[in-house]
Amino acid sequence: MDIDMDPFGLGGMGPPRQGGAFRSHSFNFASPNTGKAAGKDRAQDPAIEHDLYISLEEILRGCTKKMKICRRAIQPDGSTKKEDKLLTINVKPGWKAGTKITFQKEGDQSPRREPADIVFIIRDKPHPLFRREGSDIRYTCKMSLKQALCGTIVEVPTLTGEKIPLNLTREIIKPNTVKRFQGHGLPFPKEPSRKGDLLVSFDIKFPENLTQSAKDILYDTLPN
Fold this sequence. Notes:
- The protein has two domains: 2-124, Urease metallochaperone UreE, N-terminal domain (HSP40/DNAj peptide-binding domain, Sandwich); 130-209, Sandwich (HSP40/DNAj peptide-binding domain), CATH 2.60.260.20.
- The chain contains three helices and 16 strands.
- The protein has helices at 56-61, 145-150, 212-221, and strands at 2-5, 12-18, 26-30, 48-54, 63-74, 80-91, 100-104, 118-124, 130-133, 136-144, 153-157, 163-167, 178-181, 187-188, 191-195, 198-205.
- It is mainly beta.
């Protein structure tokens, strides 16, 4: 069977995988034929898993993904024919990577076996600025050694597009310095009215070399 991303569902999807265990939250959607006595004793094909990549912005507010599947379906005369079907996934704010959404028995139909379950697994789409850490997100601010020692003002981006000014003119920034902005992270999955924090780390660029005069000035200025 084939599964394609519907044009109205923005995002990416990984290749199918047969079975596989993953600890996560799971959501099941039963097909109309699930549980009918006629097929309860038939063996079922292994679940077909697909990675569904979601951006952090979509995790922030929630989104709807529409997945088109093409499967073999049994016709009234007993033959099989390919048919298209649209599966709708309502991604809730704050869902964690690894969350599974299962559509029961939506795989290829066969007279002798139960159709496989179709399972979508939420994955984080790589972000150019942020990295998810639970319900927190982390941003790495790059700065020069001069800025780290002498102070600077930086603008910290957020997932909403807002920029937060961060005044660092009165402190020395060390490689292990972390600033925290409460409530600017992702929603908690079980309590979406609450949000995690935005953590700011610093990547300090050291000079490749120094002139002798610069070394002398630093030697006389910096404490031992």
